[in-house]
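Hi R.,

Here's the chain you asked about this morning:
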Amino acid sequence: GMADESPRRLGPFLIMEYIENSGDMADVLRAPGHPHEEKPVLDPAIDEAKLDCVYGQIADMMLQLAKCDFSRIGCLGMGNSNGHDGEPEITSRPLSLNMTQLGEVGGVPHFELPPTSKTFSTSSQYYSALADMHLQQLSFQRNQVVLSDDECRKKYIAR
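And the predicted structure, written out as tokens:
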């Protein structure tokens, strides 16, 4: 809901209810016989109505999330004042898929990423931090993938 619907006027919110289930969306959409340990592949024979329903629900959630307005960019958590849980607020850096992959695949040590307490007040600050992280990836790549500054620039621009 939106801030005016919140009992304490805290800001936009989501109320989620746990629903007992026996799998996840990947299990519903996965091609039969495709190994679970591999990246899921969409079942080519999936019923169009089922696919429309799933994509419709995802689109609805994305539209609801797009309406939320926060003063900072980061992860939502509970503020901590005097050792007690406070109000919901942006408490730590955003954790994007890109940032996760920089550590897992790109070889960037976690201490080279922005501190976990870092949040951003503007999109410019966030995009600048993202660019810095991409440069870190170039610094930590193995196997001497670039031989000159010019080649490095070309590969970075191509990203």
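The longest helix spans residues 48-66.

Let me know if you need anything else.
M.
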